Amino acid sequence: MPISPQFHRLALMLGDDGIEALHATEVAIFGLGGVGSWCAESLVRSGVGKITLVDSDTVCVTNVNRQLQATTRNLGRSKVQEMANRLHDLHPKATIETIHGVYEASKRDAFHLERFDYVIDAIDSLAHKVDLIMSAHAAGATVYTSMGAGNKLDPTQIRVGSLWESRICPLAKLVRKKLRAQGFTGDCQCVYSLEPAQEIRHTSSRDGTHQCVCGDTVRGDNTGDLVSKDWCDSKMEINASVSHITATFGQFLAGMVIQDVMKKLRANSIAT
Predict the structure, then answer these.
(1) What is the pTM of this model?
(2) Which of 88, 92, 104, 116 is nearest to 25 (CA)?
(3) What is the pLDDT along the chain (272 residues), one digit of tens a residue?
(4) Right CATH number for 5-271 from 3.20.20.70, 3.10.320.10, 3.40.50.720, 3.40.50.10490?
(5) d(Cα 172, Cα 249) in Å, to the nearest integer?
(6) Could you say which of 3, 28, 97, 221 is the most buried, measured as most Cβ atoms within 10 Å of its Cβ?
C-alpha cells in the first residue's frame, strides 16, 4: 500500500511496515470526553486506520474547556459524530464507526469486543468501567484504561503502569476493589495521577451536587434555539478539570497503543 505523504514524518521513524501495521489496527474508544477525544485524534493522526467511537452524550458548553471536538458552534450535537467529522478531515481513508449509546453489561454483546485489537476505556461510570475492563480482557483485546483525571493540575504527576500497582488515585482504588469482588485476576495498563485532588474553590450552590450549569445554555441540533437539558443529571458529583491534564491522559493512552503495535511488529519480524 502506498504510504500517504501525510504520514511521511511517521514513516521516517516507524518505517513503511509500521505505517501499514497502524493502518490495519482496530481500536475502540469508550468515552469521548476530555480524555477519549484527545486519544482518538492522536491515534488517527498517527495512522490508525480503524476507530470505533462510543459515547451517548452531546456537546455541552462546559465541555469546551477540555474536549477536543467541543466548540461554541456545535453545542447540543452528538459528541461521537462531531469527533468522527473531525477525524475524517484528518485521515479520509480511515474507517470511523460511531455508536451513540452507553456501554453497559446488559448491552456488552452488541459491541462485539472480540473484533478489536485495543479497547480504550475512558468511561466515567465506575460500574460500566469495571465491566468493560473485564469483558474486553475476556474477549482477547488489549485494554488500556484511564483513571481519574479530574481535580488535577500538575501533569508531571501523571503515570502509566499496572492497574494493580497504581497509587494515590481514588478511582483506581475503587476499580481494583470492584474487580477483586468480581474475581478478576487479569491485568491491564492504566494512566493515573499521583497528585492529590485539588481543593474545589468555586462557591456555586451546585457544587458537590449532580447538577451542571449547562442546562440553560445548550443549543438544539436543528433549530439553534436554546434548550433546557441537564446532561449531567445522572452524575453524583461534578469534577473540576483542565485541558492539559485530560489531554495528557489521552495522549498517553494513544502512545501506549502505538508503542505496542510497533513492539509486536518488531517481535514478529525477528521471529520470521
Answers:
(1) 0.89
(2) 116
(3) 678 899 999 999 999 999 999 999 999 999 999 999 999 999 999 999 999 999 999 999 999 999 999 999 999 999 999 999 999 999 999 999 999 999 999 999 999 999 999 999 999 999 999 999 999 999 999 999 999 999 999 999 999 999 999 999 999 999 999 999 999 999 999 999 999 988 877 655 444 444 566 654 444 444 444 333 444 555 566 889 999 999 999 999 999 999 999 999 999 888 87
(4) 3.40.50.720
(5) 14
(6) 28
| Residue in this structure with the C-alpha cell 488489549, named with its chain if needed | 142
As given in the structure block, the three cell numbers for residue 133 are: 475492563
Helix axes of 79-90 and 36-45: crossing angle, nearest 10 degrees: 20
Place of cell 475524517: 88
Residue 208 falls in which region: left (phi positive, over 0), alpha (psi -120 to 50) or beta: left
Q: With contact defined as beta carbons under 8 Å apart, do 38 and 251 qualify?
A: yes
Instruction: For residue 46, give the nearest of 20, 69, 28, 67 by alpha carbon.
Output: 20
